[in-house]
User: Fold this.
Amino acid sequence: MSENAEPPALCLDCGARPNQRPGNACPACGRRRIIRHAELDSLTIAHIDCDAFYASIEKRDDPSLADLPVIVGGGVRGVVTTACYIARTYGVRSAMPMFKALKACPDAAVIKPNFAKYSSVARDVRRLMEKLTPIVEPVSIDEAFLDLAGTSRVHRKTPASALAGLQREIKDEIGITVSIGLSCNKFLAKTASDFDKPNGFSIIGAAEAKSVLAKLPVSAIWGVGAVLARNLNADGYMTIADLQRAEPSALARRFGEIGLRLSDLSNGRDRRRVSTSRETKSVSSETTFNTDLSDPDELRSILWRLAERTSARMKEKGFVGRVVTLKLKTADFKTITRRQTLQKPSNLARVAYDAAAPMLAETAKGRSYRLIGVGYSDLLTDWNEAQNDLFGSGDDRLRREEGAIDAIRRKFGDDAIALGRSYAKKPVVLRTKDNDGENDE
Assistant:
């Protein structure tokens, strides 16, 4: 393309390819939602993110909510699961304690989550994605990466045109909107999808990646949470431009392997491929209470039941783990985690409990908690490789005992048999949740 030539353009509303100068309406539909970019027709990696997913579904199903701030969450003692864009203007954010959200936005309509409905809608969205390409990598229930390389011959249109059509199709058929980021790799595509919400379509080309990233805060890098961002800021890395100027060796000395990853991503380099299979990194279960608990016996009883729940899912999936993690959330919403590396990998409830119980005793000490959880991580999926180590000692007896209990529960239900430590007074539980942590690297 010559220096004076206009970059290729695409009308997001009708799919036309206008060639007039920027600022003019689309000659086909008369609208101005037109995207122009020099690399429009050569980029193939996309990130699609459903906009305020749960809240959007609730507004779709109840038109009277259309102009209201909507919060989807778990009641007064719960947290915000999703807030619509109107509620976000009041400062409401996901994972915010519900009492804080309602203080910021007292007129919000609060809706209890309906995860079965949301999962059904997610499957509908996924079905439309897979019509474009079989290479779809879900990141969560409401977002995914797509690799559209080689699909132009199938659809007789460029990946950008196909994605714009998908965006319209999701809105027309399913009744929600999605935002799309298009680029040459996963990190840049995900970054782009955050630029224009809701119902947005943004592009970061390879040639401009460094300059686009430079002005963003370090927290914009995927995987940089609040703690790492604070550490980076303390070291003088405020923007991605600061990381771009740093020597990779200096970042590696300070932050280890994460430092090298920061160097790559800050410069727009991401070698990860879009993969249809995602590696499970951890398996855990957690319980949130209606009333804060401080009684050690009650907490230990709940910990045991969660260990059994986690163990059952580990066995079902064929995993063993090297690390047991205890998770606690205090009455003031502070999250505490403790980890214990096992001498031998395991998936047994007794092993998880025996590792977590001392950590609980050490951490609790008269404090009140609103959540407790336990899980296995650093998983092994090659069962035969782990067998000799796993079943070479007293674990063999535990494995037989738990195997017999598991068989009875599968046949007669979870309450068919219980060990003595399960009989402590059961608190009023707000919810119990199972988590399978996945590899986002």
About this structure: The chain has a mean pLDDT of 86.
